[in-house]
Amino acid sequence: MSFRLPNKLVTTIVGSYPYFPEALKAFQLRKRRVRGSEYEELVKTAIRKTVEDYLSAGVDIVSDGEQRREDMAVFFAEELKGFEISEPVRIFDNVYYRKPVIVDDIEWTHEIVVEDWRYASSISRGRPVKVTLTGPYTMYSWSFDKHYGNMRNAILDLARALAREVEALVNAGAKYVQVDEPALSTRVEKEDVKLAGEALEIMVGKLSNVKRIMHVCYGKIERLFPEVLDYPIDQLDLETKNSEYRLLKLLREYSFDKELALGVVDVHSSRIETIEEIVDGIRKGLEIIPPDRLYVKPDCGLKRLKRETALAKLRNMVKAAEKAREELA
Amino acid sequence: MEINAGICGNFPRPPELRKALDELSSGKIDEKELNRVFKLSMRKIVELQEENGLNPVTSGLLLWHDPLRPFAESFSGVQLGGLLRFFDNNFYYRRPIITGPIKREKPITVEEVGELSQIAKTQVKAVLPGPYTFLKLSENKFYQSEDQLIDDLIEALAAEIEDLNGLADIIQVDEPSLVDPELSLEERRKGVEVVKELIGKLRVPSDRLIVATYFNLDPDSYSILLDLKTGLHLDLCSSRDKAEEALREYGFKGSILSLGIVDSRSIFPETPAEMAGKTRKILEKTSAEKVMISTSSWLDYLPFNEAVEKLRILGRTLREVASS
């Protein structure tokens, strides 16, 4: 089915979508290491429902909603060779999570999200499907290292392993590849920023005819500048609504010339932003970035919201982008 | 120079206590049953420390939901807010919201430390949050004057320390904000003044009092920490080479120095020989009367089994250092 992206203010999402009951059931099976046809069907149903929501909201570039992934780091750790999963570690109060542990050289052994991308693409009615991968710096930061004892070696091995997944995705036809690096906005040193750039070079540096995107959010994103300007990416995907668009000033100072995916709805708030409020946000972006390079999307993944809230936010976001396009016409 | 080993702060909850806390929330057990499991757990943690030759020991702070919580829950004038990231960890604390005059209405950790001192065969260490970190991690919705807030906070904490003084051999005041790289040096300097004010009110001798900093140590922060003129706990694992640079530059002259040399946020294998080598190198730069080989910070960031491993490393490092 043919679908043409608008030539300005393309709407998209960051990656995750609220989990459908089928996804939650699939997590339970996965925990019991059951991965047969029932498991696959549950994941597919969850992906289908996600894509249907995106289509009903009118989002231009969609995703699989990360319905197979309960946790963005643990999921890839379970699929790559070289990882184990730890005993519980506290996250707050009496709530615990299991953390990936690097116990051996990290290697890619099989396709991880290719099938989900393929399935989402088959039902997206021609709309491009963006694929999201947890980046090497974040994978390392959110894991225990029992094997390398050297951040650089571990991150570059992670990048080489994930590059194999990127290659498989591109061979399958993926045109939008996003590397998620939320850990880059925490307390990073300059050498970390450079290392993350080297890792990206390994993962996506040589790709052509593929939109290379990096997503980063919440924290000291300023610290990535100016190095991030030389990252081998075409698009920087930022959380901006929650931080009141303060990063735009920085982008202006650096004469930012990549594409910008602008966060215009807050994923940490259940309040549905009004269309006018979102248009205001888009106008702020347009002061810095021309409309053909400005993408409109939520701040971050939507998985923590209720489905109805996420959908309502997306609907208003799409209407706001339409309105902003009309203003430009 | 007297050398010992001990953990910096808490110990992860054993699985049975985690389960009991969940069961209490869902109404499957009552407070009495929880208390029974808690006491057994505390005994277990104390024994684990003692078996590994640690001295002093802590209670493990097993019921503390976060490093501020027992105080944020108990002080009048303070309510609990939302979850916020605890420094640069994937661990979250509930932000204290100050809504009225801060007052310590009753002892907070005294019963737990009393119990610890009864079951421990060694010396015991009491741990509590310092006023500056409490201030920086809270939201003030009440005080017009920050000075008044600080005075009240100091008074409340000093009263608790006064009650702990007779029960604990070492009292540790945790002040990670004093070395927080997110704060300006000016703010950190102000923090040191706040802690000095607290220390001025205490009757704890300087060889029994430690101000603990962690998650960072750099030469600038360290030089102002020395102004405290008290015992210090330093994290030697979180700042790459900067911590050793700080000690090399400024040394340490004081009564008690706790060296956070065993990494409490990593499980990369550490050998006692390597840890002992590091310790000896640092000891060349210090003339502390008492030195404690310690974990870099609390052990909350590790799974239970890995934290037990850290106790072994501490004990074996101590033996290695002592035998040389």
Task: Give a short overview.
Chain A has 329 residues and is α/β, with parallel strands linked by helices.
If you average the pLDDT of chain A, what whole number results?
96
Main beta sheet of chain B, described?
A: 7 strands, parallel
Which sequence of strands runs across the widest sheet of chain A?
1-10-9-8-7-6-4
Total count of helical runs of at least 4 residues of chain B: 11
Which descriptors apply to this entry?
heterodimer; A: 329 residues; alpha/beta; three-stranded mixed β-sheet; 10 strands; B: 324 residues; TIM Barrel; 11 helices
Q: Could you please describe the fold and organization of this structure?
A:
The complex is a heterodimer of chains A (329) and B (324). Chain A has 329 residues and is α/β, with parallel strands linked by helices. Chain A contains ten helices and ten strands. Chain A has a seven-stranded parallel sheet with strand order 1-10-9-8-7-6-4. A three-stranded mixed sheet of chain A has the order 2-3-5. Chain B is of the alpha/beta class and 324 residues long. Chain B has a single domain, classed as Alpha-Beta Barrel (TIM Barrel). Chain B is built from eleven helices and ten strands. Chain B starts with a strand and ends with a helix.
